């Protein structure tokens, strides 16, 4: 379905944030992302899910270099961009765009909507004059905004329309990958569906790839080809959407999914409750980071960190109890 060579390959990505400290106190770090690897093919959507604070937004922001990775590789079409200086990164930003949960904060409130969408075209010297006007108008058409809205300011748009404006701005430079950081989390359910449908249509028509970050699994199920699950800075499971939702293998994924309502009243999911608080990412638990909350934890879980192992083609899990079934 997708090309073999990944568009984006993230390898052992680490992002630590230093904490504030008092005089003579040792420096400590929030280990937000702690050795995460995955790839995305052209035209593919990878959903990235997990509870608040699991590190998924830090991954998103590192990929577009809004945050500087602590270590690891971020390969875009084979070129490592993780530590490129901004002068070399800048031309590559055309390929890599981001849309945010709150587009309002990323839209200049004093600029008219048409100028906001035109800005990347001007910055990358892609169009000017009548051609610029024509392309901006076409982008408004493409995302379902009216052309007369080009003269409006961001505060004159509804939440869903502002997200469409953010999408138009991201689309302006013909990116290969759009990182979608909780793009519908702040919207009403009916508006969420409209924005998801728009993103799906754009992918079909333009061959875009998405990294779709969300905490809502039902949203991810609608748009993703594959889904990756994070817990406390680690990737714990990756699988094709159908596999992950029908046969989740990691106890954490099982617990997350059991909390998602099933629309068919004749079907029920067994509810698995995760007890306890999420541990601090400053001092994560030893061994498997999920062991303090896992109903299946054994002695080895406290001592050794489980690796992400392929248990079936395309289905990888980090859990000691799944290793025995792993494919060689
Ligand atoms: Fe639970 Fe142990 Fe598996 Fe971690 S390794 S998810 S603690 S059973």
What's the CATH topology name of the largest domain? Rossmann fold
**Category from helices, strands and their pairing:** alpha/beta
Question: How far from one another are the termini?
Answer: 24 Å
- Under the CATH scheme, which architecture of the largest domain would be assigned? 3-Layer(aba) Sandwich
Order of helices and strands: EEEHEEHEHHHHEHEHEEHHHEE
Rough outline: globular
Q: Provide the CATH top-level class of the largest domain.
A: Alpha Beta
CATH superfamily of the largest domain: P-loop containing nucleotide triphosphate hydrolases
Q: How many whole angstroms does the radius of gyration measure?
A: 21 Å
What does this structure look like?
This protein is α/β, with parallel strands linked by helices and 328 residues long. The protein folds into 2 domains: 8-224, 3-Layer(aba) Sandwich (Rossmann fold), CATH 3.40.50; 250-328, no CATH class. The protein has helices spanning 56-63, 86-92, 103-106, 113-123, 129-142, 159-171, 189-206, 217-223, 241-246, 251-258, 299-303, and strands at residues 8-18, 29-40, 45-49, 71-76, 79-80, 96-99, 177-181, 209-214, 226-231, 234-240, 309-312, 315-317. An 8-stranded mixed sheet has the order 6-7-8-3-9-10-12-11, sandwiched between helices. Strand 7, helix 7 (189-206) and strand 8 (209-214) form a beta-alpha-beta unit. Helix 5 crosses helix 6. The longest helix is centred in the middle third of the chain and has 18 residues, at 189-206. Bound molecules: iron/sulfur cluster (SF4). Iron/sulfur cluster binds at residues 250-251, 288, 290-291, 294, 296-297, 301, 306, 319-321.
């Amino acid at each position: 379905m997708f090309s073999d060579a990944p568009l984006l390959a993230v390898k052992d990505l680490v992002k630590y944030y230093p904490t504030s400290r008092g005089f003579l106190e040792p420096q400590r770090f929030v280990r937000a992302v702690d050795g995460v690897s995955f790839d995305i093919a052209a035209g593919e959507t990878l959903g990235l899910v997990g509870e608040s604070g699991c590190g998924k937004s830090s991954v998103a922001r590192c990929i577009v270099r809004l945050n500087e990775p602590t270590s690891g590789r971020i390969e875009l079409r084979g070129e490592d961009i993780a530590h490129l200086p901004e002068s070399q990164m800048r031309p590559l930003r055309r390929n890599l765009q981001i849309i945010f949960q709150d587009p309002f904060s990323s839209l200049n409130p004093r600029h008219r909507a048409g100028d906001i969408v035109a800005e990347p075209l001007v910055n990358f010297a892609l169009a000017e004059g009548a051609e610029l006007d024509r392309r901006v108008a076409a982008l408004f058409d493409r995302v379902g905004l009216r052309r007369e809205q080009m003269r409006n300011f961001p505060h004159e748009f509804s939440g869903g329309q502002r997200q469409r404006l953010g999408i138009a701005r991201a689309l302006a430079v013909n990116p290969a990958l759009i990182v979608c950081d909780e793009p519908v989390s702040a919207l009403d359910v009916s508006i969420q569906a409209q924005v998801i449908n728009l993103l799906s249509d754009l992918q079909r028509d333009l061959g875009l790839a998405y990294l779709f970050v969300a905490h809502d699994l039902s949203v991810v199920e609608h748009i993703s080809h594959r889904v990756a699950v994070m817990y406390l800075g680690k990737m714990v499971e990756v699988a094709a959407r159908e596999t992950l939702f029908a046969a989740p293998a990691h106890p954490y994924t099982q617990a997350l999914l059991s909390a998602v309502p099933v629309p068919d009243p004749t079907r029920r999911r067994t509810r698995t409750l995760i007890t306890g608080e999420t541990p601090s990412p400053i001092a994560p638990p030893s061994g498997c980071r999920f062991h303090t909350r896992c109903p299946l934890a054994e002695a080895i879980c406290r001592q050794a960190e489980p690796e992400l192992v392929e248990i079936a083609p395309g289905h990888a899990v980090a859990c000691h109890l799944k290793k025995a079934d792993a494919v060689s």
